[in-house]
Amino acid sequence: MPRQEAVKYRPEPDWTQDDTLLFTEPTAGPALRKPAAKKAKTTRGFWLFNNVLLYMESELENRVSHYIAARNDVQAIYSQYPAALYHDAEGKLRCHIFDYYVVFKDGYRVAVAVKYHRKKEQMLEMLQQIRADGITGISKGKKLTPGVADEVCLMTEEEASIEVFENAQCILDSRHHHDEAEFNLVYDIVSRLPGDFRFGELLRNCAAHGKRRTAVFRLIDAGYLSPVSSGRIDDLTWLRFVG
């Protein structure tokens, strides 16, 4: 998926002094359809990102949505949107509903199709036709919107591997459960380390391994630490300070 840029971390506001609890009802956003909750042989369900329901109709879609959400340059994600018109190889007008619609923090919009690699060639041909027809969206009321996205792309299990999914889960968890003091402490440590170092080195002699591990993932998410190579991030992963 294009447009990977580090967005530096800014501390969240301290709401602990506010005794007013606010609840905002989750929304499905512009989703054009709600998938059936159950179907034989497929994973079904949803999860929340920025209080928006993200539907999934397969384990691969679940992995893809988490991978996208864990990027620090993403502003919003919507599922089952947009519906785009295109002409197939025989010239027949068809419509495809994308699995996810991603809005980046700079306003760039990407419609994402999710399929297993065995269908890659077929899907890439369809996406090329959608581009050729101007990425024209069609609403439930049949209103046409040329350029409903800036780009379309395909994601398969090659991009959204199990390792990528597990890394994304750790990053997303760190956004909501990291300790600010531990984050600052680890930042001070890594900012003084020369060259590359292993994740596990940061766990030595710390009071709480769980809190320290979460802080490290938060630093990766915030763009201050970067894995030297791809793959699952664990204690043996080489990291580099890029602050």
Mind sketching the topology for me?
Blueprint: E1 45-49, E2 52-56, H1 59-69, E3 74-79, E4 83-87, E5 93-97, E6 100-104, E7 109-114, H2 120-132, E8 136-138, E9 144-145, E10 151-155, H3 162-177, H4 180-190, E11 196-198, H5 209-222, E12 225-227, E13 238-241
Parallel strand pairs: 7-10
Antiparallel strand pairs: 1-2, 3-6, 4-5, 4-8, 6-7, 8-9, 11-13, 12-13
Helix pairs in contact: 1-3, 3-5, 4-5
Give a short overview:
The chain is of the alpha+beta class and 243 residues long.
Could you name the key traits of this structure?
single chain; 243 residues; alpha+beta; Arc Repressor Mutant, subunit A; 2 domains; 5 helices
Protein architecture, described:
The protein is α+β, with helices and mostly antiparallel strands and 243 residues long. It has two domains: 45-155, no CATH class; 162-241, Arc Repressor Mutant, subunit A (Orthogonal Bundle). It is built from five helices and 13 strands. The strands form four sheets. The chain has a four-stranded mixed β-sheet, with helices on both faces. Helix 1 (59-69) crosses helix 3 (162-177) and helix 3 crosses helix 5. The longest helix has 16 residues, at 162-177.
Helix share, percent: 25-40%
N- to C-terminal distance = 24 Å
Number of helices: 5
Instruction: Give the total of domains.
Output: 2
In the predicted model, the low-confidence regions spanning at least 5 consecutive residues are: 13-17
Which secondary-structure class do the elements indicate? alpha+beta
Report the biggest beta sheet as strand number plus sense, adding barrel if it closes.
4 strands, mixed
Shape descriptor reads elongated
**Radius of gyration, whole Å:** 20 Å
- Strands side by side in the biggest sheet: 3-6-7-10
H/E element sequence: EEHEEEEEHEEEHHEHEE
